[in-house]
Amino acid sequence: MLKMIDVLEQSLVQNFTHSLNSHTSQFDELFNQGILNTADSALQNVVVNFFNRADAIESAQALDISADRIQALQTGVALKDEQYLADTAKIVALCLALETDALAHLEISDGLQDFLI
């Protein structure tokens, strides 16, 4: 099974963890471009794998992705379309955060601890 770190460019994955601590709009642009540069079939595969997880729907809802967009993303067809790119980026970022164990390295306030996956 492919992982998100296998699908995206290595430099993007390496910069991802750093960007969590010093978020910039420039990285958002690079991140979106990295998603757009990814092979459609590979991106589709990892997003479909994400939605095969038992907690995927709840995770997507926690990312503030609406039910109709979740349904569209589950098919894996329009992941790079302009109207779905932001939602795709949320899922890609969550997958990268989980795969790189980046969440363990972030300072998260006690009040938000219950919302972590």
TrEMBL record:
It comes from the Bacteria. This is Uncharacterized protein. It comes from Acinetobacter sp. A1-4-2. The lineage of its organism: Bacteria, Pseudomonadati, Pseudomonadota, Gammaproteobacteria, Moraxellales.
